[in-house]
Design goal:
Blueprint (H helix, E strand, L loop, with lengths): L1 E6 L8 H13 L3 E7 L12 E4 L10 H6 L4 H10 L5 E4 L3 H12 L9 E7 L6 E5 L9 H19 L5 E6 L9 H11 L5 E7 L10 E3 L2 H26 L3 H21 L6 E5 L4 E5 L5 H16 L2 H9 L1
Helix pairs in contact: 1-9, 3-4, 5-6, 5-10, 7-8
């Protein structure tokens, strides 16, 4: 039986939605068990259903790696330690992003040869059912050209393992599609990728084209990638509200909605960033999934399903083998 360890503290909405998500996940995945770290009093409804590790200390959102490693009675530290000691197959948290990702890197160590781990997630595209893998979306603020080159390799291996893309097309996120565009770092990375036979590198891609379905992998430094992530989420939320308001405008618009509601539902589902759930810290020795800080029960269950899919596809083993 496979095991996922869940950090239940540190999210914006507390432990309640995580408990709800855990119950639903277990009902749908009989071959998995969950280990929950957190305040045992808050988790009492799951006694006898899940193993509970009492770790009531909450890691603050501003915490860094060293602070997390000193907080040995925190839910986050205990969750990472549990995975580190090979008692689980994956760990999921919606707590402090910086603290979780950096502490996981220190605790689990990078895979051999990995210069720096990256946060990777799958984004929806306009092609129904197709995802594009984007990394780094926030594990680091600065990256070297060599790190971006390695992100491209790891992103390709991730896309092959998880989405079964045969020869994923790789692009660099830039301010223009021309070969000469990009930051000084991405320009150097462009040169490296042009000569890298491990990836199917195509060239630069602007942010406005990132979700058109042309790319399977898009590479960025962590700062730019995180801005893209937050921008895409913001646009999706804004569009959903605008469409909803448009159909509520008058009686005729409400009647019109009845004719197009199926299409609107499909569009809404495609643009719903909560359905992605979370991103994986790729490059470390384990499946580490960072869920949204404001996760509700649905979003956190999606993050747990991301972890499950990564474990089932043996993505860590395949990335390690591919890098070697």
């Amino acid at each position: 039986m496979k095991t996922i360890v869940i950090d239940t503290l540190g999210g914006d909405n507390g432990a309640k939605p995580i408990i709800e998500a855990a119950k639903k996940f277990l009902n749908e995945n009989k071959d998995y068990k969950l280990i929950l770290t957190g305040d045992k009093n808050e988790l009492s409804s799951l006694e006898g259903v899940c193993e509970i590790i009492d770790a009531p200390e909450v890691v603050p959102m501003t915490a860094g790696a060293l602070e997390v490693m000193r907080m040995k009675n925190s839910s986050m530290y205990q969750a990472i330690e549990y995975l580190k000691n090979n008692h689980a197959d994956a760990v999921v948290s919606c707590g402090s992003t910086g603290g979780f990702l950096s502490a996981a890197t220190i605790g689990l160590k990078n895979l051999p040869g990995v210069k720096r781990a990256a946060l990777v997630s799958a984004f929806p595209t306009k092609i129904k059912g197709k995802k594009v893998v984007i990394l780094d979306i926030g594990a680091s603020n600065e990256n070297s050209p060599e790190e971006l080159e390695q992100f491209a390799v790891m992103g390709s291996l991730y896309a092959k393992s998880v989405f079964k893309y045969d020869k994923p097309r790789v692009y660099l996120l830039a301010n223009g599609s021309e070969d000469t565009k990009g930051s000084p770092t991405s320009k150097e990375a462009f040169k490296l990728l042009k000569n890298n036979k491990k990836v199917n590198f195509i060239g630069n891609m602007e942010a406005r084209d990132a979700l058109n379905g042309e790319a399977e992998v898009i590479v960025s430094d962590g700062f730019s990638g995180n801005i893209f992530l937050k921008g895409a989420e913001g646009v999706a939320k804004m569009m959903a509200k605008m469409v909803k308001a448009a159909f509520k405008k008058n009686l005729w618009s409400k009647l019109g909605y009845l004719h197009v509601r199926k299409g609107i539902k499909e569009m809404s589902d495609t643009m719903d960033y909560k359905s992605v759930g979370g991103g994986m810290l790729v490059g470390v020795n384990g499946v580490v999934v960072k869920a949204h800080g404001n996760s509700d029960a649905y979003s956190f269950e999606c993050a747990m399903n991301v972890a499950k899919n990564l474990v089932d596809s043996k993505v860590v083993e395949k990335i390690e083998k591919g890098l070697n």
